[in-house]
Every structure is written in C-alpha cells, then in structure tokens.
Design brief:
- The chain has 301 residues and is an alpha/beta fold.
- The chain has one domain: Aldolase class I (TIM Barrel), CATH 3.20.20.70.
- It is 39% helix and 14% strand.
- A 6-stranded parallel beta sheet has the order 2-5-6-7-8-9, sandwiched between helices. Strands 1-4-3 form a 3-stranded mixed beta sheet, with no helix packed on it.
- Strand 6, helix 4 and strand 7 form a beta-alpha-beta unit.
- Helix 3 packs parallel to helix 4.
- The protein is globular and about 55 Å long.
Length: 301
C-alpha cells in the first residue's frame, strides 16, 4: 500500500440525504483488494486507476480532525461507499479506527458499509459513539453459501464470518444489518439463496436487510464483470448479453417474485427493509440528530 496526497476527507453537509441518513461522506482509502466480480467502483466515471491497488490518503487523520473541528453541524458520517474502510491494510495502519476515535471525540455519528469481519475490532469505539450519536453498520452479504461467496467476492471474509460479525455487533447493542446488493441475476437470484440470507440474518440478530434484486453495469466495470463470468461461470456472459444488452440496470427477471418472498419473510421475522424505517430505527432517540420525516424519500419498491 502507498500513500497519496489529499486536500479534504469529509464532504459538505447534506440535510436531505436519503441514503441511510448520511449527512457527510468520508473515504480514507482509494481502491480495493477484495476482487468482487461486480464492483461498481471500477466504473470509469469514478476515475480510480489501478483499482486493485489500495492507497491511503496522506495525513488522513490530521485532515479529518481539522475538518470535524470546523464543521458547524454534527451528523452522521458515512463511509465505505467507494472503498471498504476495513481492507486488509487497515489491520496494520488503523486509519479507520483512528477516524472513529475522532468521530467520537467530536460527537458525530457514523454509518459504515463493509464486507470485513475486522470491524469487530472496533466495537469498543462504536459503542462509545452510540452513547451520543447514531451508529449504523451495513454488512454486505449477497450469497448465503460460502463457496458461492468466494467465487463472487474472492478476497474477503466468507458470508458465514460476516453473519457472525453481525451477531457480535448486535450483541454489543450496535444497530447492524445486511446490505443485500447486488443480487446477481442467474447466480444469486434464487428463492433458496434469498430465504437463507434472511434466515441467517435473523439468527444472528440483524435489525435490517436492504435489497436490490439485480446489478448495475457500466463502462469498464462491465468488461471486468464479463471477464470474471467467463472464469467462474462459463457461458453466463452470453446469457447476460442476450437478456440485458448494454443496459445500465440489469434487473433480475425474478425481481417481483423475490421481492414478495423477501417482504413476507422479513415481516415474519420482524426485520426492517424499507429505507425510511431503517433510518428511523437507528436514529431513534438521538434528538436533533434524528432525521426528520420530511428528509426521507419514499422508497416503496
């Protein structure tokens, strides 16, 4: 890993951010070594060269401290949208942990998306933040089966390890759940896979599951995805081309059926799945930090 120059770390304040109620965004790392076959962050529009090489932003913690101190409004800082904050190098460099310590010091909340069980290392800080501000952990899980998981996300914790991490987080009182996206058509969009993910999520204390029954493909991301399909699922690329052509949104042909199943089973287990309910759920009880109902976009599917 190498360090690259950076001027800023945290975005400007957004009062009407419907994506999990994030008010700010922060990315300490650039690039990712997980090797997921579907990764949207490989898209040309994000201008991340040599995407498989992880880089950290130089003087990241000093910049974060300066920016947090200068913010006029507290709120929830989201991280993990572009690069996983718990990549393998985080174990050594502890930049994400350092950022969480600063978030706690300056009384902000945090919303983290990850595929790594390393996040359990930071349960102590997450609990400290939750005393004063909202905390949300989104663990991406798209395959219930570990063997399938390793084909799709080869260099990251197996699904079973991620479910176990959700259990640790939930038992510590941290609002945690599953980011069920993307659900790859013709690979993961089966009743068995979706039902098992819901079942395992319930058994491990997940408070929510947020789904997308399909995948988006664009630019060089599509080329990477198709090359990996040829390696892991021979013949499937041609099926994608016939079904979707060059569409950006490749929605599962079973999306409606899976949504009905998903909704029914989540309701049975008491698992949240609508964005507005998830936001209200993890922000409940935090006073002015709680998102107003007028800031939430209706996301009925």
């Amino acid at each position: 890993m190498r360090f690259v120059p950076a001027k800023t770390m945290i975005s400007g304040y957004a009062s009407n951010n419907s994506w999990f109620g994030n008010n700010y965004n922060m990315n300490i790392y650039k690039g990712c070594s997980h090797g997921c076959i579907y990764c949207d962050s490989r898209s040309e529009c994000y201008r991340v060269e040599n995407f498989d090489e992880v880089r950290a932003k130089e003087d990241a913690l000093d910049i974060i401290a300066r920016e947090l101190k200068a913010k006029r409004k507290t709120g929830v800082i989201g991280t993990g949208a572009m690069s996983d904050p718990y990549n393998p190098f985080e174990k050594e460099f502890e930049l994400t942990r350092g950022a969480l310590e600063l978030i706690n010091r300056y009384q902000f909340g945090v919303s983290i998306a990850t595929k790594s069980d390393l996040i359990s290392r930071d349960i102590d800080i997450l609990k400290a933040i939750s005393v004063h501000s909202p905390v949300l952990i989104k663990m991406t899980i798209t395959a219930a089966d570990d063997i399938l998981c390793k084909k799709i996300e080869p260099n990251v914790a197996a699904s079973s390890a991620r479910f176990a991490t959700i259990k640790k987080l939930s038992e510590a009182g941290i609002f945690s759940g599953v980011l069920l996206m993307p659900v790859l058509p013709f690979i993961e969009d089966t009743v068995e896979n979706i039902s098992n993910i819901i079942k395992f999520a319930h058994e491990n204390g997940a408070r929510f599951i947020y789904p997308a029954f399909g995948v988006t493909l664009r630019q060089n991301q599509r080329a990477w995805f198709y090359s990996r399909l040829d390696e892991e699922f021979p013949g499937l690329k041609q099926k994608y081309i016939r079904q979707f052509g060059d569409k950006y949104e490749c929605r599962s042909p079973k999306a409606k059926e899976l949504w009905q199943l998903f909704q029914k089973e989540c309701d049975y287990y008491g698992i949240l799945y609508r964005m507005k309910d998830i936001i209200n759920g993890y922000k409940q009880g935090y006073g002015s930090n709680q998102l107003s109902i007028f800031d939430i976009v209706n996301d009925d599917l």
